């Protein structure tokens, strides 16, 4: 297996990176335009979040077709040019594989809804009646994790949005389809893969109510997850490539197994425990001051534990789901530069592979939106309504969104002090922070 321990990965959220054609949306040609900048930064890999055809209910993490390019982002020719131009600069491209679920617009799910038994077995359907939900599991975006289909008399599982139906990894035909997708992209010159919420793919044989929580204890690091990952990596021929798994609510012991080379699963893992230190009672939507003692203890535990177990950390502060770290743990005002550099230093000086999210290198901040109409993120819009239903005032709900929303990191990249921060010649899909005149490349 190749050694990725001295490499740096730069994450690109294409929709917000650079718009080359003036439609307000970032695109693949916009990334090509900025390759010289990325080469000067010294990055080794570019991880691109999904740009596949999608209804965009979850900004591309609801994939309708794993083998094509959403026309909003460009064409296959654009991607092939991006791969070639990046290769010429010594930069490899990593794709984001969303294999826990597909969009309900995917042809597999459409065939399932049309009554084809083969494709119903690609998903997790349960016979039932409208007023008796199969389990009390809660979706990660709020509300029940099941949706009823009257025409079938069945419920389907969706751990995320109702338009993101969970795949049935116990079906060998599903696993073969997913392996074939990896082979396809490898043949195109892709150099690595990031697997979205990959530790949730294995569900138990018997699905039951959770009398202690929201159901996650039954499917997180599930019964056959390691077996499935070994098979996926081995049979798709990606053993020698850089692979990183996003691990939701995982444990140190599992991450050692996921990333220990002897296990032949993945090369490294993301875990999120260090980003829950300002969750009151573990609730993302309850604010509190960061517990810095807990942060230090978590890093001590994971740094030593992964070293002793021969696992490997993917180190990060920011990504497309997290608030900007300088807004979260730093000081946006008096010590903006110093705190941004301090936080960057912490990531680069630990044991693991650093992942830099676009704009992190210039200390981009949260946008501090003051109106719910400015938000686009499905999770944020859902939780705004949930917070109001819990008795929060609109002002309190907006304060929570301003700190927690995934849109905090999705604002357009600030390239210059010109109009729209040099991101586009048109109004961007998401409002740009007002400080772009002083914080830009």
From TrEMBL:
TM helices/strands, residue ranges: none
GO terms (BP aspect): oligosaccharide catabolic process
E.C. number: 3.2.1.93
Hydrolase found in the keyword field: yes
Pfam family, one: Alpha-amylase
Domain of life: Bacteria
CDD domains found in the cross-reference section: AmyAc_SI_OligoGlu_DGase
Domain Glycosyl hydrolase family 13 catalytic: 11-410
InterPro entries assigned: GH, GH13_cat_dom, O16G_dom_2
GO-annotated molecular function: alpha,alpha-phosphotrehalase activity; alpha-amylase activity
Keywords of this entry: Glycosidase, Hydrolase
NCBIfam families assigned to the protein according to its UniProt record, in alphabetical order: PRK10933.1
PANTHER family on file: ALPHA-AMYLASE FAMILY MEMBER, TREHALOSE-6-PHOSPHATE HYDROLASE
Family: Belongs to the glycosyl hydrolase 13 family.
Protein name: Alpha,alpha-phosphotrehalase
Organism: Candidatus Blautia gallistercoris
